[in-house]
From TrEMBL:
One Pfam family hit: Ank
Signal peptide limits: none
Pathway: Protein modification; protein ubiquitination
The protein, known as: Ankyrin repeat and SOCS box protein 11
A cellular component annotation (GO) from this entry: endoplasmic reticulum
Cellular compartments annotated: Endoplasmic reticulum
Keyword DNA repair applies: no
Amino acid sequence: MAVVECIRQWFRSLVIHQLTIANPLMADNWMDRSALHVAAFEGRLVLLHNLLAYGADVDTVTLDNVSALHEACLSGHYECAKLLLENGADPDRVTLDGGTPLFYACSSGNAACVQLILERGSSPHADRHLASPIHEAAKKNHQECLQLLLSWGAQVDLELPLVGTPLYCACMSQAADCAEVLLQAGADVRLGCGQDSPLHAAVRGGAAQIVALLLDFGADECCRNEDGQTPLDLSAENSAVRSALQRRGICSLSQLCRVSVRRSVGANHLPQISSLLLPRRLQDYLLYQ
């Protein structure tokens, strides 16, 4: 037994010395990262299992309060994240930068990790302004992660200071897929970041596809930001976004009615439109189907 214990101690020391390497995405000081952190980040499941079996603290953290679960979620290693949670890892631990495991799972775009963390009771809502899961998913154009968050009740129009709404983030990053998901889910096309609308952001980024999408969902091409500029003022001459804005023309009565009905119903009740006693064609029109 003494020999076995000596071997275990030797193995543990060897692993810790060999695996203390830097992860510039997660910690300012890599020297305080444990072997558990590195194994989780690199997806080394067998090693992670052995370290936990040899008594490694599943919730050991760095100086930045980064845990191994944060690392696994950031790198998108589902099996490692699952193993850590099964061994009691805290799914709601917050780093000094305000990031939760859910936030980092959304950043990596691993929908399985997002689902796993949500099933463990983690809230889809952000407690800190710079680490909102739904904003991160929208910004990175991770459509499946975004849809999961919305299905778990994330606020579609959550506006954060200096960050804006998820739709604004998607437009800023030219994330067309996520912009469409948010609009379909009832995101208010008028809400951006202060007076700067999603349409301003899309025009500024030169995203003609998103500009056309926003206009179709009722965006106002005449709205002005805090500098008094309209989206057209921000568009470059002979650009695709300017052409999209100029092609808009006068909004049809049917389109005005659709936008008005959707706003009256509200994002939370949009799915109920399909159960109303309306012709199927009209239901599809209201739901942009």
